[in-house]
Amino acid sequence: MEPTKMNEDELKALAEQLRNPNGKDGIETAETMHETNIRMTHHSIDLLNIKENNTILELGHGSCKHLPYLLKQHKNLSYHGLETSELMFSEAKRINGDCIEHQKACFHHYDGIMLPFDHLAFDRVFTVNTIYFWRHPKQLLLELYRVMKTEGILNITFAEQEFMQQLPFTPFGFRLYNLNSLNQLVNQTPFKMAHTHHQTEKVKSKTGNWVYRRFVTASFIKEQ
Fold this sequence. Notes:
The protein is an alpha/beta fold and 224 residues long. It has a single domain, classed as Rossmann fold (3-Layer(aba) Sandwich), CATH 3.40.50.150. 35% of the residues lie in helices and 27% in strands.
């Protein structure tokens, strides 16, 4: 059966849920995002080069069902998650209660700009499919730079503009990037590009169609 075509109001509502899951549809949206983004998330984590005793920050953790995968990367890891969605902040705490209790994870609700952490707090930082929604990208990157340790790694994983602009909901509140525009943004900060890794996968889109999605993880470092 072919997916039902969504009208403009439905596409706007979907775009808003993807940006900020909330209300009765938020849990369902979060589950869909987890299923469709899990390979991207693992890709981003795998490329962090995590070491023993690292402290790790994630922007936009969603339901954070991927946390066990991250914590298995090495011994004595400490995870902090940041969310602008109050629903996802609450849901992640509910799902990962054992990790919180054993002081392996901590979740924070924030405004999407200012990070509630001290300078030089994190060894590794990653974010998956959030860059489209950053309200003040340069300011947020400078905040990330501030809270990262020297020689720290930042991974930004996203689907590039050429793919994203084919999706019917991205005209509603998405800021799309390719590697050139991402580099132009990051070059306004002290971060230095380390490497990029591309991957293509077949996934069911948020509108129900099967598509081939090409995505990239761009890794940046904080030099001495």
